Amino acid sequence: MLWTGEWELDPxxxxxxxxxNKQGRILITLDKDFGELAIVRRKRHCGIIRLVxxxxxxxxxxxxxxxxxxxxxxxxxxxxxxxxxxxRIRPAERPSH
Length: 97
Prior knowledge:
Largest sheet: 4 strands, mixed
Low-confidence stretches: none
Radius of gyration: 13 Å
Mean pLDDT: 92
Distance between the termini: 36 Å
Order of helices and strands: HEHEHEE
């Protein structure tokens, strides 16, 4: 696990997403901008989990549950948004032929 808050400099969202992708890591965030990068700008990623309205104490448990249940879906490039009482999954877009 890496936390970008420990990095000396903030390289910006695009570089963070690219780093996570190159490392084969699922990105966990509170920031909706990563979803925009993935969906609108079609930036490659190994899965994104966005947490909405969870307390700091709840976040780890929620992430573990999502990873246990949706790990394969995430590594296929899904974007999962988790809110209390609701999980939305946007599967990876399939290339058109």
